[in-house]
Design a protein that fits this description.
Order of helices and strands: EHEHHEEHEEEEEHH
Largest sheet: 9 strands, mixed
Number of strands: 9
CATH class: Alpha Beta
Radius of gyration: 18 Å
Strand content: 15-25%
Oligomer: single chain
Amino acid sequence: MPVRRIVIASQNRHKVQEIADMFAAAAPELEVVGVLDASSQPAPEIEETATTFSGNAALKAKGVAAWLSELGASPDDLALADDSGICIDALDNAPGVYSARFAGPEATDPDNNRKAVEELAARGLEASTAYYACVLSLARVDGRPMSLPMPESGEGDLYIEDGTLCIEGQCFGTFRAQARGEGGFGYDPHFWIDEQSRTFAELSPAEKAARSHRGAAMDLLLAQLHKILAIDPEVG
C-alpha cells in the first residue's frame, strides 16, 4: 500500500480532528494531518464556487493536492476534502452549500444559526425537518484520476467527479429554533435527533462520529479504504 499520508483539505480543526480520529481506529498505519500541519507554507485559500457539495469537495481536494505537489510531497499521498452543510426543508434546502457563510462571508456559527432561526420565523415556523449532508472527496497528489474501488460501487454513495473519488453521507433530523447543548459546532445545537429528544451538541464526540453525516461518509470510505489505496490509477 504506497499511500502513507492523507492531508485533510480543511483549516477547521474540529473537522480535522473528527476525521483523523476515525482514520486512527481503522488505519493506524496512515499519517493523517490537516493542511495547517502539513507544511510550514501557508495553505491555499480555495474558493468554493460550485453549487453542489461534491463540486466544492472536488475543488478543494484537487486544489490542495496540487499545492502539495508543488511543495514536493510524495506523489502517492492523497488530499481529502470535506464539504458539508445542513439542508432545511422549509427553507427550500437552504443553507446547503452556503451553510458556513449563510449570514455572510465572515459569519460565525451563532450568526448562521440566528439567520436560520429568523428565516424560519419569517415563515411562521419554529421547526422544520432537515438533514445534514457530507461529501468527502479524495484526490491524488500526482494529479492522476482516482478510480472506484470496484465496478459495482459506482452506484449510490461512491462515484467519480472531476477525477476525484466522492463519498456521500447524510443524517436526518429536525432543525428547531430552540438550541440545546454545548458540544459540536455549526448548527449542532439546533439539530434535534431521536424523536427530538436531544441535539447533536449533546452528543459525545464518539456518539456524533457514529451518528453524523460525516460519520456515515467516513464509514463507507473506511470500509473501502484498503481497496482504494491499492488501486493503480493507470490500470484501475
